């Protein structure tokens, strides 16, 4: 009897805590949702259903409608609930509307802040997460998503370097102990000697970054790196519209897409990189200068998946896995919103926000107001009030966002 009781106790102990993985994916979704074919949110849904990312980072998002299509349609079959960051139009280059975005599994991650880093060419967005672990010692994950300047030549290489430098300078401001960092994007690097690539890996950076795949060399049109190539998924862009809207052609021969990580992922006992999990998703390693769905490019990735990738974008996604070595906190499901507008969301004096105070706790007792750059401009205490008045008189005209520390909901208002 004693042995049975011991066995049952051990069984419950094992079941109470199983290690979790965090699946990350970066994807250049190519002028989404406006480029052909139509209804690409359904194609993307099938791709995401197969990989099931917990952190989905993208670039070439055209508008906020595209972000909502991904959240509400492409991610609709995921087991857990997803949320997204606030959409902020590109401020560096308004004529080039392409923007970045993150979507995330709310059971595993909480978005606590976001900011925009203006650069010489287009914005880079910085998203600050906390992992939803039970421990009182938080795990911080800082995520940068970029789309660097394309094309060859010294001027374009310099512009890519200047954009990267905005991120490496921002690393100096990440002062939380043991902060983990991901820097992902369409970097448009042709080889590992590029000054922008070397700047990311500079050991003098405030937080040391590494390339998880550690494959230095000249990647372009090099059969030795066929397994890493992410563009172009199409030998011909015929059938995808005309001109720049049709995307790149020529087949897979460039490693343009990356997820770089902070070095502490390799030696952490709390949050660690799963060795060998970094992949150019859908690339079977035998498709140099061919379409990704060529019938001769067989391997671990199925024909169906490769057909979807071919139709979705002229880039392949990059994926990698991380292991969370601590139990996650159990989050209760909210049936009602925590906050809502009790006034118009267009005002030149004040807005009034209703709050469900029964679900407010010590860590979630403030309303945070951000401007369109993602900068925190005002903090207003809730203090058990069911209606909170936020003065807008000292704010400049423009779009603003309200959120709470530990909640994924966002309210938008306009200061006239």
TrEMBL record:
InterPro entries for this protein: Endo/exonu/phosph_ase_sf, Secre_tail
Kindly give the NCBIfam families that the UniProt entry links to this protein. Por_Secre_tail
Can the keyword Signal be found in this entry's annotation?
yes
Keywords carried by this UniProt record = Signal
Pfam family of this protein, just one? Por_Secre_tail
Name the record gives this protein: Por secretion system C-terminal sorting domain-containing protein
Q: Which organism is it from?
A: Paenimyroides marinum
**Glycosyltransferase found in the keyword field:** no
Task: Describe the location of the Secretion system C-terminal sorting domain by residue ranges.
Answer: 357-409
Gene3D superfamilies reported in the protein's UniProt record: Endonuclease/exonuclease/phosphatase
């Amino acid at each position: 009897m004693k042995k049975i009781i011991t066995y049952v106790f051990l069984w419950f102990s094992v079941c109470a805590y199983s290690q979790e993985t965090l699946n990350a994916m970066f994807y250049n979704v190519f002028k989404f949702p406006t480029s052909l074919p139509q209804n690409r949110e359904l194609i993307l849904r099938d791709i995401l259903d197969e990989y099931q990312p917990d952190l989905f980072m993208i670039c070439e998002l055209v508008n906020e409608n595209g972000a909502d299509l991904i959240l509400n349609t492409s991610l609709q079959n995921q087991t857990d609930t997803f949320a997204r960051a606030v959409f902020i139009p590109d401020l560096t280059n308004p004529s080039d509307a392409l923007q970045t975005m993150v979507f995330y599994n709310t059971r595993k991650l909480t978005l606590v802040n976001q900011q925009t880093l203006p650069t010489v060419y287009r914005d880079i967005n910085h998203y600050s997460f906390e992992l939803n672990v039970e421990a009182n010692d938080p795990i911080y994950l800082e995520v940068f998503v970029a789309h660097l300047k394309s094309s060859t030549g010294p001027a374009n290489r310099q512009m890519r370097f200047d954009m990267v430098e905005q991120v490496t300078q921002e690393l100096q401001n990440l002062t939380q102990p043991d902060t983990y960092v991901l820097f992902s994007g369409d970097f448009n690097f042709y080889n590992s000697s590029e000054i922008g690539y070397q700047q990311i890996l500079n050991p003098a950076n405030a937080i040391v970054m590494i390339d998880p795949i550690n494959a230095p060399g000249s990647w372009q049109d090099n059969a030795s790196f066929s397994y890493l190539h992410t563009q172009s998924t199409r030998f011909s862009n015929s059938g995808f519209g005309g001109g720049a809207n049709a995307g790149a052609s020529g087949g897979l021969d460039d490693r343009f897409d990356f997820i770089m990580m902070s070095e502490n992922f390799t030696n952490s006992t709390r949050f660690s990189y799963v060795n060998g999990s970094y992949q150019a998703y859908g690339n079977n390693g035998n498709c140099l200068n061919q379409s990704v769905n060529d019938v001769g490019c067989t391997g671990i990735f199925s024909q169906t998946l490769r057909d979807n990738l071919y139709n979705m974008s002229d880039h392949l996604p990059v994926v990698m896995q991380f292991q969370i070595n601590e139990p996650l906190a159990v989050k209760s499901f909210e049936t009602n919103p925590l906050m809502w507008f009790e006034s118009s969301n267009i005002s030149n004096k004040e807005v009034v926000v209703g709050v469900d105070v029964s679900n407010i706790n010590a860590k979630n007792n403030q309303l945070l107001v951000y401007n369109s750059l993602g900068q925190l401009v005002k903090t207003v205490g809730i203090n058990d009030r069911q209606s909170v008045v936020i003065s807008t008189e000292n704010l400049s005209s423009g779009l603003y966002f309200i959120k709470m520390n530990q909640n994924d909901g966002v309210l938008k208002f306009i200061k006239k």
